[in-house]
Amino acid sequence: LRSSTAPRSVLADDPALGNLRARVRRFLDEEREAGRLPPPGCDRWLSGWDPGFSQRLAARGWVGMLIPLEYGGVGATPSERYVVTEELLVAGAPVAAHWVADRQIAPGLLRFGSAAQKARFLPKIAQGRCYFSIGMSEPDSGSDLASVRTRAERVPGGWKITGTKLWSSGAHLSHWSVMLVRTSDHPSPKSGLSQLIVDLRGPGVTISPIPSLTGEEHFNEVHLDSALVPNGMLLGTEGDGWQQVTEELAYERSGPERVLSSAPLLLSTFLAAADPAAVGGLVARMIALREASYSMSNSQEGDRSGLVEAAIVKHLGTRFEQDVVDASRLLLPYPADPDAPLGSSARMLAEGITHSPGFTLRGGTNEILRGIIGRSLRSSQRARAKLGA
Ligand SMILES: Cc1cc2nc3c(=O)[nH]c(=O)nc-3n(C[C@H](O)[C@H](O)[C@H](O)COP(=O)(O)OP(=O)(O)OC[C@H]3O[C@@H](n4cnc5c(N)ncnc54)[C@H](O)[C@@H]3O)c2cc1C
C-alpha cells in the first residue's frame, strides 16, 4: 500500500487530519484507561448507548461537527467528521445515543429546518444531549416506504398524529423522532407526505420495545394515538416529505458505519488467525470501500442527494461487513461464545453473527438498493440514447 503506484488518500496524507486522528485516539485511550470505554465490540454504533460518553465526546467538539458556530457547533469539514467517525467505529465506541442526531437530523435541520428549530435543537445536538430516532418504517411499510399510513391532521395549535411506527431504533431512550407521515390524500402516494418532529415523551405516544434475537432491547414499536404535535414542528415544507426523506437516506446509507460495523472483529481475527494473510483480501476491500464512502461524505453538500451513490456504498459495504463475520467463523481457532469476556474474539464473533443479518436490512434492504441502482442505470442509458438520437 505504500508503493508509489498505490492510490493515495487524503485521509492518510493530510497532516491536519492525521493530527486530528491522533487526538481522537488519545482521547479513546484515556477513556479506556479510566474504565469508561468498554472493550471493543461489533455494531456499537447501533447498540452502545452511553449519554456520558456522547457528552464527553461533544465537549471536545466531536458531536454534530458540521453544525456551524452560530448554532453551537464547531463548523468542521466533512473530512474532519469522517476521520473522527472512523476512529470511533474502529474502537467500537458507544456512540448510539447521539448517532442519528449527528448523522442525519443535524444536516436535515440545517437544510430544511426553520430558524426556531435550528436554534432549539442544534446547540443541544452539538452538546451530545439531544437524541433522535427515525420514524420511517411501519408494520406494512418498510421497503415500500411511500405507502406509510400514519396520518397527521391539522387541528387548532398543530397536528394530531395517529398510526404506528415500527423498528424505531433507540426510540425508548430518545427525546424526539422525525416521522414521515401522510398529511394529505394525494393520488400519487409519494406526494402528500411530510416530516414532523415528534416528542417521544408527549401524550398519546406509547413506546413498546421489541426484544431482538439476543434479548437486547434496541428497536421499538411507537404507537401514536391522536398525539398532538404543536405548530412549528413541521420539518421543511408540507408535502415535500418524500424528497426530504430521500436526501436523509443518502446520509443514512453512505457513512463509514456501512463498512466498519464489524471492523473490531476484523482486527481481532487478523491478530488471532493462524494465517493472518488470509484476511488480506478483506482488508483490500475495506480500503476501496473507505474511499467510496469518504468521497460521498464530501459530495453531500448543498442540494445534491447522491441517493444512487449512497445505495452503491451501502450495498457493497454491508455485504463486506457480513463477509468479515463469515470469514472470521472459518479463520478463528475457536467458536463464537456469547458468554466469553467482552472484547474477546469469541465474544465479538458471537456479536457479529447475531447482528449481521441486520447489516443488509436496516436503512433499506440490498434488494431495494439494487432496484435503485438498476433504475438509475436505465435512466442514464435512456438519456444517452436521447442525446445520440
Ligand atoms: C437493526 C435494524 C434497525 C432498524 N432501525 C430502524 C429505524 O430506526 N427506523 C425505521 O424507520 N426503520 C428501521 N429499521 C427498519 C428497516 O428500514 C426495514 O426493516 C427495511 O426497510 C425493510 O423493511 P421491512 O422490514 O418492512 O421488510 P419488507 O419491506 O417487508 O421486505 C421483506 C423482504 O422482501 C424484499 N422486498 C421488498 N420489496 C421488494 C422489491 N420491490 N423488490 C425486491 N425485493 C423486495 C426485501 O428486500 C426483504 O428481503 C431497522 C431495521 C433493522 C434490521
How would you portray this structure in words?
This protein has 389 residues and is an alpha+beta fold. The chain is 48% helix and 15% strand. Helix 11 (307-331) packs across helix 13 (366-388). The radius of gyration is 21 Å and the shape is globular. Residues 1-6 have low confidence and may be disordered. The chain binds flavin-adenine dinucleotide. The site of flavin-adenine dinucleotide (FAD) has 20 residues, from strand 1, strand 3 and helix 13.
In short:
With 389 residues, this protein is of the alpha+beta class. It is 48% helix and 15% strand. The protein starts with 9 loop residues before the first helix and ends with a helix.
Number of helices, counting only DSSP H or I runs of 4 residues or more:
13
Q: Biggest sheet: strands, sense, closure? A: 4 strands, mixed
Mean pLDDT: 93
Order of helices and strands: HHHHHHHEEEEEEEEHHHHHH
Q: Tell me the Rg in angstroms.
A: 21 Å
Structural category: alpha+beta
List unreliable stretches of 5+ residues. 1-6
Cα separation of the termini: 45 Å
Helical content stands at 40-55%
What portion of residues belong to β-strands?
5-15%
Main-sheet strand order equals 1-4-5-8
What ligands are attached or bound here? flavin-adenine dinucleotide
How many runs of DSSP E, i.e. beta strands?
8
Quick one: overall form? Answer: globular
Task: Compile the SSE list and pairings.
Layout: H1 10-13, H2 15-33, H3 44-47, H4 51-59, H5 78-90, H6 96-112, H7 115-126, E1 132-135, E2 151-155, E3 158-169, E4 176-182, E5 193-199, E6 205-211, E7 217-230, E8 234-235, H8 241-254, H9 263-272, H10 280-299, H11 307-331, H12 345-359, H13 366-388
Parallel strand pairs: 1-4
Antiparallel strand pairs: 2-3, 3-7, 4-5, 5-8, 6-7
This protein binds flavin-adenine dinucleotide.
